[in-house]
């Protein structure tokens, strides 16, 4: 079965991961988020019971 032969696919996978890890990932990590998260106090929400028609 030719799909079980790792010879043509392993170098392609290795080259793509090296390209991603060494070239693309550092460029992506240099971007700053446009809306950085802020420390907001979580306010508890007031909930009311659901009015079930059969109860």
UniProtKB/TrEMBL annotation:
Subcellular compartments: Mitochondrion membrane
| Annotated coiled-coil segments of the chain | none
Membrane topology per the entry is: Single-pass membrane protein
Q: Which GO terms describe its biological process?
A: proton motive force-driven ATP synthesis
Q: Name one GO cellular component term.
A: mitochondrial membrane
Pfam families recorded for this chain?
Answer: ATP-synt_8
Give the domain of life.
Eukaryota
**Swiss-Prot/TrEMBL keywords:** ATP synthesis, CF(0), Hydrogen ion transport, Ion transport, Membrane, Mitochondrion, Transmembrane, Transmembrane helix, Transport
Q: Which PANTHER family match?
A: ATP SYNTHASE PROTEIN 8
Q: Which family does it belong to?
A: Belongs to the ATPase protein 8 family.
Q: What is this protein called?
A: ATP synthase complex subunit 8
Q: From which source organism is this entry?
A: Bycanistes brevis (Silvery-cheeked hornbill)
Gene behind this chain? Answer: ATP8
